[in-house]
Amino acid sequence: MMRHLISIGDLDREDINYILKKAEEFEDVARGEKKLRILEGKILGNLFFEPSTRTRMSFETAMKRLGGDVINMTAQEASSIAKGETLADTIRVVSGYCDAIVIRHPLEGAARFAAENSSVPVINAGDGAGQHPTQTLLDLYTIKKECGRLDGITIALMGDLKYSRTIHSLIKALALFDMRIYLISPEALALPEDIIEDVSAEIRRARLEEVISEIDVLYVTRIQKERFPDEEEYRKVSGSYRITAETLKSAKDSMIVMHPLPRVDEIHPSVDSTKHARYFQQSFYGVPVRMAILSEVML
Amino acid sequence: MRELVVSKIKEGTVIDHINAGKALLVLKILKIQPGTDLTVSMAMNVPSSKMGKKDIVKVEGMFIRDEELNKIALISPNATINLIRDYEIERKFKVSPPEVVEGVLKCPNHACISNAEREPITPKFYIKTEEMRATARCHYCGRKIENLDNYIS
Description:
The complex is a heterodimer of chains A (299) and B (153).
Chain A: H1 13-30, E1 43-48, H2 54-65, E2 69-73, H3 75-84, H4 87-94, E3 100-105, H5 110-117, E4 122-127, H6 133-147, E5 154-158, H7 165-174, E6 180-184, H8 193-198, E7 202-205, H9 208-211, E8 217-220, H10 231-239, E9 256-258, H11 279-298
Parallel strand pairs in A: 1-2, 1-3, 3-4, 5-6, 5-8, 6-7, 8-9
Chain B: E1 12-19, H1 23-29, E2 39-48, E3 52-60, H2 66-70, E4 80-85, E5 88-94, E6 100-102, E7 124-130, E8 133-138, E9 144-145
């Protein structure tokens, strides 16, 4: 049984396949079509030291769909706690209130440190620029469901590859499967070299127009304004990394566009109605995947 | 007869073949600080047939534990240890890098939880050695560091 879920690197291919298979079994429940109360009497503690809407809500939905309860600490409450209490103490206290903790924290490694101080399982919901393993699992689940397989996929990762924790987690997991990976980003936001070195997969930098007709998945991330020294530079870069329905004209029919959301303007609304858009489906898949993780650590 | 740069010790630990210029870092790793009661002698840039130049540290009256001594391999993988009893070498060995070190290195990532003030946390690193060069990876944030001399806390 999985004790904590801190980094995608803690899981092997077999663990991932197991969680994805379990998630599939929960899909009817996630949609509310079937009732299942296997976590009745259990309490999940949501500790969000940084704002989050969808991750926090989808954990809450996952827990409630399985009959469990949730207690929440929001970023606002966290900031008042932070004035006087260490993370170690907060975790020691809250782990006495619940059966598992979900944590999002601005510092890298905070989830691992939380796990070391917790008497209940800890699930990492994002620690700074570090890891976001539940997002990675739902991304893999989306690829598997929508493309029918994980092995043999050609995927392009596009946008902010330097700071995006989603990308850093995802690329490690993609390397466990037989995938060809293209990296599409402005030079200033390229994937850090040490991550490329660590990943034993076929990886190549490319431009979208070179690979659009070849790829099975286009994974887009937000380019954050605050990463740029001036707004002019940001506008130049972000403008060239914007997907429209037109951009996708030469894509394969089966090619899917994914995005961890929220999007700003990197995917034009015209893409939403194309056969390629899967980002809303992807965010729904967060529920069955998180149900699988919660049931795994709590039962 | 060659003159000894540092006098012989009766009992204690001699750390030889330290990379030239690293003796002070060795003391730091062993947590021997100003104000110590120990008798410590140190020689820097001593001519060496094998290494060209080397440093030597002698700590009198104390047998330092192997796991502490092995941490020296992080900055000086060729270092040798002589444990001296009654002016004779009782045991001699080469340091070998530990797989995990706690509380020796400091993570350069300011956003790493191991640098958070007031948290009861000890930095922890996993060590990898290739061709006599050690690199380390932070247990908490995963940051990989080379040239470990720069990160001794």
